[in-house]
Amino acid sequence: MNFRDLEYLVAVAELGHFGQAAARCNVSQSALSLQLQKLEAELGVQLIERTSRRVVVSPSGRPLVERARSILQARQELLDDAAVEIGRMPATITLGLIPTIAPYQLGPILKSMRQTYPGTTLRIIEDITQNLVQATARGELDAAIIATATNDSLIAETELAHDELLLTVDRRHPLAKQDQVVPKQLEKETMLLLKDGHCLSDQAIGFCNANSAAVAPVSIAASIDTLKAMVCAGMGVTLIPRMAVDASPPDKCLVFLPLKPAPSRTIRVITRKTSRLGPLLAAALKSAIESGTACCVHKPVKARRKAGEKQPVQIKR
Questions:
Q1: Dihedral through CA 224, CA 230, CA 232, CA 234, nearest 10?
Q2: Model confidence over 250-266: pLDDT tens digits?
């Protein structure tokens, strides 16, 4: 038995598919299957139930999968601690980001980390908040950048920045002529949202509810770009993170307006409390954000108007 055998077991348990598990572990499917058979023979129990349609962990294998996951996490933390002890980052760091942050911050963060820690390779995972929190707690991720507070006792949080949410409307919309919008003006508007599971949707609805804005929520889009396209088509309005506006080229179809009170989300990095790497990695990401190389939430955003209309209003904080 070796660590690779345990990695194969955990991968198959999590993915429920030999081919996908083999791809994750960078090994052939036949080699993975053979090693698991050897592991079962060594332990004297059936770990995996194999059928023509699916692969599931056997009842006797479930507690062993959890033990294997704990062993792998402890091994990784041992390697991380050794690296931190001598003042350097590990050779590989796995970082998770939610879809409403990754497209706008990933490139600058990678650039900053490469400059500061050239000997470290970042492996990136994009997923929704719930999955990233669980993966971080299990030790599958070294850290994750999210925009929602967690209630997990295993997780430590470090705030990185505050990101304002801007009302986004079609330039033909009556509100597009205003410099600022109050929640009362959103009543009966169709509020376009990302699909369930995206924290941005919860934040948008939470703001409307907290300010008694009776909007008609429609959860339909899978990305911010799709939301913008739907607003441009006149299907409704939405709230877009300021970082997404700053990172995108000017859009002649849309107008981005500040709300009063201004809704925002808190960008934070989460790590495991038991990991000595966690504080070092959180500090590195926070430094990148504060240096201005990896976040544009402090830049002024301008609403775009038609030629001949009054000058765009600079959104002030």
A1: -150
A2: 888 999 999 999 999 99
